[in-house]
Amino acid sequence: MVAPVILSGRSLTMRFGGLVAMAEVDFDLRRGEILGIIGPNGAGKSTLLNIITGLYVPSSGEVRLEGERLNGVPPHRIVGRGIARTFQSSRLFSDLSVIDNVVIGRHSKTRSGVIDAIFRRSRADREMAASVSIAEELLKAVSRDLFEQRHRLAGELPQADRRRLEIARALASEPKVLLLDEPSSGMDDADTDALMDDIRALCAARPDLSLMIIEHDMRLVAALPHRVMVLDYGQKLADGPFEEVRLIPRVQEAYLGR
Ligand code: ADP
Ligand code: MG
């Protein structure tokens, strides 16, 4: 049985002045699926995640989550509806502890301001305490090693742990869909292998979670995604299993040409 589509995009176009960063792109993401997104620099990969998460409003086209239109919904509401992401460059709060960074990720799930609570330690103490224990459980599940380092400042962590923490923070909002923008960037092969193991474990623990992963590391792209979508100059070149997509001449040109 094929799982239902949870997230879809239709005819997505994004113009920045005269530049067309995305042209008429369609995609579907099914429940429990890992969709890889590959393509040269400037192909529009991050733009696609920015459209899905409401940071960019597409010039035309639409995004739907479980059939409901997301166009015009502000980013924090989109998190609340179940889409979480990481960014290509780290957006951790370096001066906050590991655990507080995860607690901030729970922001969309708590009624009173977790961010207020962290910075002022006044209101919402009960919610805060609940968020901390949930955040600790989550950290433990993502990485025992990160959990042990929970009181360190995020800024003191090695790069690979910072990237792992970003994933933990995104998961704290209890998403249905998790979007990762180049999660292995800045990692060596050993760290990338560990990241792949983490993602496999996560998907095994949460079979309903759907992932989109933008990636440059072809080892990861070959191993993790069920399906790969190739973007080039804002257009969709191909969509299918990696073993098939990598053989398409235009895909090879897009990579070898730069
Ligand atoms: P990728 O993530 O595939 O490397 P991006 O999606 O970041 O590519 O960018 C695609 C194109 O859109 C690039 O030419 C980039 O310069 C342009 N672009 C992205 N965001 C903006 C923006 N906010 N303003 C202007 N141009 C942008
Ligand atoms: Mg990018």
How would you portray this structure in words?
Pfam families: ABC_tran, BCA_ABC_TP_C. The protein is an alpha/beta fold. The protein has 2 domains: 1-70 and 178-186 and 210-258, P-loop containing nucleotide triphosphate hydrolases (Rossmann fold, 3-Layer(aba) Sandwich); 83-174, Rossmann fold, CATH 3.40.50. It has 11 helices and 10 strands. A 6-stranded mixed β-sheet has the order 6-7-8-3-9-10, sandwiched between helices. Strands 2-1-4-5 form a 4-stranded antiparallel β-sheet, with helices on one face. A hairpin with a 2-residue loop joins strand 4 (60-65) and strand 5. The longest helix has 18 residues, at 125-142. The mean pLDDT is 90.
SSE topology sketch:
Elements: E1 5-16, E2 19-30, E3 34-38, H1 45-52, E4 60-65, E5 68-69, H2 75-81, E6 83-85, H3 98-105, H4 114-120, H5 125-142, H6 144-148, H7 159-171, E7 177-181, H8 189-205, E8 210-214, H9 218-223, E9 227-232, E10 235-240, H10 242-245, H11 249-256
Parallel strand pairs: 3-8, 3-9, 6-7, 7-8
Antiparallel strand pairs: 1-2, 1-4, 4-5, 9-10
Helix pairs in contact: 3-5, 3-7, 5-7
Bound molecules: adenosine-5'-diphosphate (ADP) and magnesium ion.
InterPro entries: AAA+_ATPase, ABC_AA/LPS_Transport, ABC_transporter-like_ATP-bd, BCA_ABC_TP_C, P-loop_NTPase
Protein name: ATP-binding cassette domain-containing protein
Keywords: ATP-binding, Nucleotide-binding, Transport
